[in-house]
Fold this protein.
Amino acid sequence: MSTPWMMTARLPPEELAQAALDGDEVAVDVLARAWLPHVYRWCHRLGGPGFDAEDAAHEVLILMCRRLHTLRDPARFPGWLMGITRKVLANHRRRAWWRRWAPMPKHRTGAVAASDPEQELTAKRARERVWDALSTLDQAHREVIVMCLLEERTNAEAASLLGIPVGTVKSRLRVARSTFKRALEDEDGELAPHAHPLVGT
């Protein structure tokens, strides 16, 4: 026999948000569990190196539960949640801006003992270059890079989440790809390793 939790989990997103608005505590819990992975990815990809994405994601979900009564249209829940995420990211960034420029985390001793040191160094530099390139973008352009290229959402989906017209997504993405690509190019005009999936060849 299906439990109330299992039955609620099967609801379409819009109906789940409406059930949560109606005071169904099970629906609120299911909603938070369902969207935690999405929020974590947003925080991780928009926050950058040195950013505590897990802490920020949990703060977003706490605010989601507290402010759920302010959601006017259940169909707009994803964009509403993205708005909360933006505010949390901005607050965290103001409190810990310096961490963005801290060295990349070091591997634990022995964790990569079997790998090629030269390949590991190359990969580390490539990761650092990608993060540095993302850091050259302002928030608006980084958002469309994350939504459209990293999460592979359509322009329409990104527009809905970000609360902007599709045309604006397209124009920002065009500028973002160009800026990101220039930031990744080395002195010889070549792209950093592993960068091609993001900026195109």
Observations:
- DSSP finds ten helices and no strands in the chain.
- The chain has a mean pLDDT of 78.
- The radius of gyration is 19 Å.
- The chain has two domains: 11-101, 114-201.
